[in-house]
Amino acid sequence: MLEDIKEILITEEEIKNKLRELGEKITRDYKDKDNVLVVGVLKGAVLFIADLIRHIQLPVQLDFMAVSSYGASTKSSGVVRILKDLDEEVEGKHILIVEDIIDSGLTLSYLYSMLKSRKPASIKICTLLDKPSRRKVDIEVDYLGFEIPDLFVVGYGLDYNEKYRNLPFIGILKPEVVKPADNPD
Ligand code: PRP
Ligand code: MN
Ligand code: MG
Questions:
Q1: With a 6 A CB cut-off, is 130 part of the ligand 1 pocket?
Q2: 2-179 — its CATH code?
Q3: Coil, strand, or helix at residue 142?
Q4: Rounded to the nearest whole angstrom, what is the distance from the C-alpha of residue 98 to the centroid of ligand 1?
């Protein structure tokens, strides 16, 4: 698997340090709240959320949503299908949405409005990576790990054709590993 990687963009160590920093900040900001629900967006956010919540020193609830855009070609339409909804009640709770990456912003923009309609006490967004150059809709990020340039990244939850999520760092694939149709070069 490592032989498919051209370059490591963010190391395991850099991720670890960032998790501690984000966890401490979130702990400070939510210390007076006793009804915090941390929501992970499957599947990309799984590694990030699992590591991040260990640095949140509060008795938060944990839940997951799975979403899919309606076919690759209509991703830009912003229509998102809910594959798995939350198990937990949202009303009156402080919701912290956790994502691995914000690209166009369409997934989060949809999730945000959907959760907002369920009358939470507040909603904030935490993302490990942000690619602002690709944004199609405005998203206000409350907790950010790293801003990255417009490169196709894998690892630490992020996939290429569902693979490479298990890499412990964020990296870039060698061009020969990427199918010609997916290759920007
Ligand atoms: C990726 C990523 C974000 C979303 C960001 O998920 O994990 O959830 O796309 O893109 P956007 O800002 O343009 O909406 P994907 O749909 O690939 O599903 P996955 O998490 O299961 O890989
Ligand atoms: Mn995702
Ligand atoms: Mg994906």
A1: no
A2: 3.40.50.2020
A3: coil
A4: 12
